[in-house]
Automatic annotation (TrEMBL):
Protein name (Swiss-Prot/TrEMBL): Asparagine--tRNA ligase
Protein's organism: Imperialibacter roseus
NCBIfam families named in the record: asnS, PRK03932.1
Enzyme Commission code: 6.1.1.22
Family in the record: Belongs to the class-II aminoacyl-tRNA synthetase family.
Coiled-coil intervals, chain numbering: 277-312
SUPFAM superfamilies recorded: Class II aaRS and biotin synthetases (SSF55681), Nucleic acid-binding proteins (SSF50249)
Length: 483
């Protein structure tokens, strides 16, 4: 091992034996000293664990020692030895310490004390240096890798769908506009409307709300594809579950019916959760303890019955229960929660749009297993979903998880041209502008299905965090586009 080349702390802690000279570089978490010894906890982000640096104060000049404060960055060369203290395998006896960058303790906001998550959101550029957020970001990387690994191993092709688009896949209309027009001098048509012919794309354009429609186009050529990209919703919602910019995993599969779709989604979720359990153990152990500490501040009735790791194993080890929306409505309507008015939104009649509280009741109280709901009323679902023979429902599916509610939404897609165009007319949609999408139903249409997994929803579940703004590096929410 080269003395000059940096060795990551993660690799050092995995060495079989000590007594080697190494160079480490990282940021100071804590420092304490007395006349005989200085102790520095150093972290380089490669692991949740710090490496303790031990030095003889007389070997270093006073000016250097004064610069070693929380947040400062160091390069340390020394001998790795078995640790004398408990809780750590090795420590580094420092021969040389170079201060790469100082951090004025009067101004550096991340001093070694507990900080609120709200405060850390205000300094999102620095929060990756905390244990909580470094753990979340490492888990996030592992989940990104696991998504690609899962689909690659199943023979799917990753497709980049456009970020700038003229379509609104969800029909919700909550889109961010993209334009190069001068907003102070907008060109107008004769009837006083904005003349988008003068704009860059010569038409209205927006940031994508979903890659699904374009994903369907490629699935109807390559059979099995998936997208994994950013999506945008201009929804003025300040909740713990909404972001204006988030990442979506959207597989689309030709020749899949609803049953095939459910099988794939369940297999994928179990694969991802199992991957996290097997490959993120130290970070998950830290996040589990963090979640337990947070739970202890809640009222007894608000506490989760399962710890973080128990929730993850709950998904990995249980078969998902499958039932229809109609069956779910009957269960909810007849539940004690509904009869005693414990639900905020009471279930009265068939056709109700289920809320998170209803979804969590089915998973956590009634079945005590993950749940897949199918065959929703067509009025509360999107235009592209396959219409069932009953004329009332569509072949939709939602997967419900403990603590989260809906984590996956999907459906078999309507492949019949006439049924699809009639549904678009019912919803007063402009079929002419969707000619390219409808072409797939004109030329060689096939049964096909797909679903969407909001990546940050998955991250909430895997990390045990309660606010979606804390599982993405730089959250975009109403009034917040800093950093």
């Amino acid at each position: 091992m080269s003395q000059k080349k940096r060795t990551k702390i993660k690799d050092i802690l995995q060495l079989a034996e000590a007594n080697v000279t190494v160079t480490v570089k990282g940021w100071v978490r804590t420092k304490r000293e007395n006349k005989n010894v200085v102790f520095i906890n150093l972290n380089d982000g490669s692991t949740i664990n710090n490496l303790q640096i031990v030095g003889d104060p007389t070997k270093f000049d006073e000016a250097t020692l004064k610069k070693i404060t929380t947040g400062a960055s160091l390069s340390v060369v020394g001998l790795l030895v078995a640790s004398q203290g408990s809780g750590q395998k090795f420590e580094l006896q420092a021969d040389t310490i170079d201060v790469l960058g100082v951090a004025d303790p009067e101004k550096f906001p991340l001093q070694p004390k507990k900080h609120s998550l709200e405060f850390l959101r205000e300094i999102a550029h620095l929060r990756p240096r905390t244990n909580t957020f470094s753990a979340i970001l490492r888990v996030r990387h592992s989940m990104i890798f696991a998504v690609h690994k899962f689909f690659h191993e199943k023979g799917f092709f990753n497709i980049h769908t456009p970020i700038i688009t003229a379509s609104d896949a969800e029909g919700a209309g909550e889109m961010f506009r993209v334009t190069t027009l001068d907003l102070d001098k907008l060109p107008k048509t004769e009837d006083g409307k904005v003349d988008f012919k003068e704009d860059f794309f010569e038409r209205e354009a927006n940031l994508t709300v979903s890659g699904q429609l374009e994903g369907e186009l490629t699935a109807l050529a390559l059979s099995e594809i998936y997208t994994f990209g950013p999506t945008f919703r201009a929804e003025n919602s300040n909740t713990t579950r909404h972001l204006a910019e988030f990442w979506m995993i959207e597989p689309e599969m030709a020749f899949y019916d609803l049953e095939d779709n459910m099988d794939l989604a369940e297999e994928m979720l179990k694969y991802l959760v199992t991957y996290a359990l097997e490959n993120c153990q130290e970070d998950l152990a830290f996040l589990e303890q963090r979640a337990k500490d947070e739970e202890s501040t809640k009222k007894q009735e608000e506490r989760s019955e399962l710890s973080l790791l128990e929730r993850l194993r709950f998904v990995a080890d249980n078969e998902f229960v499958r039932l229809t929306y109609t069956e779910a409505i009957d269960i909810l309507r007849n539940s004690n929660y509904n009869k005693k008015k414990k639900f905020q939104y009471l279930i009265d009649a068939w056709g109700a749009d289920l809320q998170s509280e209803h979804e969590r009741y089915l998973v956590e109280k009634h079945f005590k297993k993950p749940v897949i709901l199918i065959n929703y009323p067509k009025e509360i679902k999107s235009f592209y979903m396959k219409q069932n023979d009953d004329g009332k429902t569509v072949a939709a599916m939602d997967i419900l998880f403990p603590g989260i509610g809906e984590i996956v939404g999907g459906s078999q897609r309507e492949e019949n041209y006439d049924k699809l165009t009639n549904r678009m007319k019912e919803l007063d949609m402009d079929a002419e502008s969707m000619w390219w999408f409808l072409d797939t139903r004109r030329f060689g249409t096939v049964p096909h299905s797909g679903f969407g997994l909001g990546f940050e929803r998955l991250m909430l579940f895997v990390t045990g965090m309660s606010n979606i703004r804390d599982v993405i590096p730089f959250p975009r929410t109403p009034g917040n586009a800093e950093f």
